[in-house]
Structures are given as structure tokens and as C-alpha cells.
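C-alpha cells for chain A. Residues wanted.
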């Protein structure tokens, strides 16, 4: 596990973004509607999530859509369950 992953997960706003993306793929504007912070702040949070590979982005027309990267989440859970003993 890399430090970028844990840094990304340490912030409650980023965790909430992941919860939103768990339900559906959204663009930055759609994500921003769920928060009272500025759109540039949402973009900053999305950049951190992208850097940690927790989300995947795909450009469709003039919008960039974000989806959760379930592979990274699954790998994190596997890693965490190793501590269960």
C-alpha cells in the first residue's frame, strides 16, 4: 500500500466522494452539488483521489466522468484483513 492511498482516505470529503461514486459515475459538477465547498476544492480532492488510483476518469464530450476504482479498494481490503489474526 502506498502513502498516497492513505492520504486520500484520511479526508472526510474524499471519503464522501468515494461513497457517491460507489453508487454511480459522476462528473465534477455533479459531485460538487453534494458539497458546500467550491468547485476548485472538489477538483483538488478529485486530483488526490486520482493520484491514489482510487478513482478513474474518462472524458466524454466536454465533461470528465469519475468512477470508483474497485480493484484498488479490493486490494486495500485484502491487505487490511491480513491484520485480522
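Reply:
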Amino acid at each position: 500500500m502506498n502513502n498516497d492511498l492513505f492520504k486520500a482516505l484520511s479526508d472526510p470529503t474524499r471519503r464522501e466522494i468515494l461513497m457517491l461514486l460507489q453508487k454511480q459515475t459522476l462528473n465534477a459538477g455533479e459531485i460538487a452539488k453534494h458539497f458546500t465547498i467550491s468547485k476548485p476544492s472538489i477538483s483538488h480532492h478529485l486530483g488526490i483521489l486520482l493520484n491514489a488510483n482510487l478513482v478513474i476518469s474518462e472524458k466524454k464530450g466536454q465533461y470528465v466522468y469519475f468512477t470508483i476504482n474497485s480493484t484498488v479498494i479490493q486490494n486495500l481490503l485484502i491487505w487490511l484483513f491480513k491484520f485480522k489474526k
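The domain at 3-81 is CATH 1.10.10.10 (Arc Repressor Mutant, subunit A). The chain has a mean pLDDT of 93.
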